[in-house]
Design a protein that fits this description.
It holds the Pfam family GldH_lipo. InterPro entries: Motility-assoc_lipoprot_GldH (IPR020018). The protein has 1 helix and 10 strands; from the N terminus they run H-E-E-E-E-E-E-E-E-E-E. By secondary structure, it is mainly beta. The protein has a single domain, classed as Jelly Rolls (Sandwich), CATH 2.60.120.
Amino acid sequence: MMLPNNSFLFFLITALLFTSCDSNRVFDEYQSVPNTWNRENVVSFNITPTDSIKPYNLFVNLRNTNAYKYNNVFLIVEMINPNGKIQKDTLEYKMAEPSGKLLGTGYTDIKENKLWYKKGFVFNETGEYKVNIHQAMRERGKVNGVVNLDGITDVGFRIENPTIQ
């Protein structure tokens, strides 16, 4: 009988710990942004909720590097319901302290930001929902938006069961 080597066993145990410790997660997916996030590049997620009564908390997740040079980010998030109705929101999130230190979690030069999108949202229609996210950054005093946003490496969307306190 062949026993697994120590590195495989360590990886397996670590993977089980990370997946079992996040009991609130219902959906959590990321898509990589190649080099820069072009304002025309829409990141999309297809979601088919299993419950049409229960409320969920929704988040936009961003991973960024030190190449991100702004203290905030503007996003346009569209949720397309199964019946075709579109909910469109323009959102602003703080990404850095006034000193320039980037917010978010992480010990390396990549920071992860979990940004509130909707609290207590009910997917009240059965079928597939589509979430589209694109950046809508503008520099102060300029009319045209930032075409290529540097420093964002991944865009994610997360659905959680609300925590009971």
